[in-house]
Amino acid sequence: MNNPTVPPTAGPLRSAGRAVARAVRAVIWWFNAILGGGDYQRYVQHQRLHHPGAPIPSEREYWKQRHDAADRNPSNRCC
Question: Which superkingdom heads the taxonomic lineage of this protein's source (predicted)?
Fold first, then answer.
């Protein structure tokens, strides 16, 4: 049965909208991955798994240490 209140083009438009939303989410994920968005969470998981007794720095401390290390060894970055 056709629903008289839904235009016949609603299906393709809805599909196109979903495709655009997926593409936007993928681009956001990609930028987040490049900028290190999940690095601290991965670091914490690694510390808990491999170094259970070691203190875990706050996220702020983690990024400070990471940037300090990058400044000491600039050959590992692009710019």
Answer: Bacteria
